[in-house]
Q: What sequence folds into this?
């Protein structure tokens, strides 16, 4: 497999490269908006915007081997922008019969659990947040792919994930 540097040099010279980059990082880029629970249409917009940003900034990348980190950060920023502009509400279909809608107390309990979970997650370090989002929403990614995306050693992915989960558990227990 070619390194990112070789692929970028190939792309800049016009011989090849873009398809190799997309194939290498496509699942990783998709995992970010999915981790923010965006709709399919919004996730597709984030995905496309992330690749467009890469095309616009490709000649300015200083560390091609950190491309996975750059893509995750860009997709994260794009996802946050979508959340801010679209809001976090998920509209109910008003044409559905009342019996299909969840009971208000169920909605309140679910919302409270989600609020506490996201609140605790947001207090973790950025690396832990990214690692746990990737683990939750793209479990099919190998440790090598996760390590590449986060810019860490492959051997530290499992232990870092364990420490992040333990810290998240402690924070959630403190909120009870």
A:
């Amino acid at each position: 497999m070619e390194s990112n540097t070789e692929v970028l040099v190939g792309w800049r010279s016009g011989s090849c490269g873009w398809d190799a980059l997309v194939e290498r990082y496509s699942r990783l880029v998709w995992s970010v908006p999915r981790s923010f629970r965006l709709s399919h249409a919004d996730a597709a917009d984030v995905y496309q915007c992330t690749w467009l940003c890469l095309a616009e900034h490709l000649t300015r990348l200083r560390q091609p081997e950190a491309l996975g980190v750059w893509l995750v950060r860009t997709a994260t920023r794009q996802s946050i922008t979508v959340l801010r502009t679209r809001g976090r509400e998920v509209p109910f279909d008003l044409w559905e019969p009342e019996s299909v809608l969840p009971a208000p107390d169920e909605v309140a309990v679910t919302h409270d659990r989600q609020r506490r979970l996201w609140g605790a997650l947001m207090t973790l370090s950025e690396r832990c947040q990214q690692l746990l989002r990737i683990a939750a929403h793209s479990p099919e990614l190998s440790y090598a792919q996760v390590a590449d995306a986060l810019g860490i050693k492959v051997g530290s992915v499992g232990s870092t994930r364990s420490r992040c989960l333990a810290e998240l558990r402690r924070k959630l227990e403190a909120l009870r």
Remarks:
- The chain has two domains: 1-89, 103-176.
- The chain has eight helices and no strands.
- The domain at 103-176 is CATH 1.10.10.10 (Arc Repressor Mutant, subunit A).
